[in-house]
Write the structure tokens for this entry.
Amino acid sequence: MSDELLFVNVRQVVTCAGPARARRGAEMDDAAVREGVAVHVRGDAIVGVAHEAELRASAPGATLVDCELGVLTPGFVDSHTHAVFGRARYEEQELRATGMPYMEIARRGGGIHASVRDLRARSEDELFALAAPRLGALAASGVTTVEVKSGYGLSLDDELKTLRVIRHLADALPMRVVPTWLGAHEIPLEYRDRENGRREYVDRLVHEMLPAVVAERLARFADVFCEPGVFTVEESREILSAARDAGMGIKLHADELSAGGGAELAGALGATSADHLAAISEAGIRALAAGGTVATLLPATLLFLGKRDHAPARRLIDAGVPVALATDFNPGTSPTTNFPLVLTLGVSQLRLRVAEALVAATVNGAAALGLADRVGQVAPGFSADLALWAIDDVRELPYWLGAGRCRASWTRGKPCHPRDLGLAFSR
Ligand SMILES: [Zn+2]
């Protein structure tokens, strides 16, 4: 069989074609939508986007993929997830709704520490069996590249276990999986009551966990939850500088709840991305622009928590900060694998234009993972990562609230839309 595919009978191709780097300002307002064209794939790469008749003549041996007048987009890049976890935490939703503060939920055994306890008790195989169908659900919503963080282990063995699960997912699934080490997600309970416990844990992160992660080449990025009450700016700087010196890319969870200097640190360190940013300050916005750091916004988290103080997407774009959109898929604050819903929220809550939301979900998501030179565009030389949608116009993507219109997706030219999502989603 030929290793060539020709995607024909397409109503629109959203190419996002342009410079192979993060898009800023007015550049974000152009998704380069084309009509009357087909897409030619050879092996794992796109080799042509041109008029259908021309491509049919030049690639007579290619297998035809009839898109039945749907819309073809670059596969979406979900650049922020915590997809490896044990059981779901549905009990907390009702407690929150009735006004119980997070600290009280945590005191009753909920919150992130519940996920830590749960993950520590599970084997690598169990965690893989739980996470694989979740990534399958993301692929079924048009995602072809996904970043997955550790961070529910918070001990050397459990962080390495989580990262090995992520590597197993990367090897076993057709989608592209990018691993991030988030040992600095929270100070684990066993260190909290000890004098100097915080300092001890930071030392462990820098001198024990980081070298082990690097030695096994288990993660491309290091991430820190930089927020008052979690890791301070100084602790974050220490951990991320060590990771950068060890050759890793760096990311931050920053300014989610208050403007604590996280974005300023991200910009100063030249971090690849700073994520959340609902409470970012003007100085933080300027720092991200100066550092060339991608602002990854996670509106599903705020929707789920019932909050209205969304990140200032328009001010970020106007200041020249490249903006990306991601799900933040996790069991506590964003239990969704519905990527088009994030596009909807990008437009309705963050007030992005449709083209801006599309660029945020493709080119800028790829830039948030250091992949903008080969992922996020339907253009010659780019990875053949595509999603096919049963819609007539790309503006329907954010319009059909909560709908599943993705018919198929391909990563590196191979189908990755699972027909059977399995049952072991959240046990
Ligand atoms: Zn997160």
The chain has a mean pLDDT of 95. The first helix runs from residue 52 to 58.
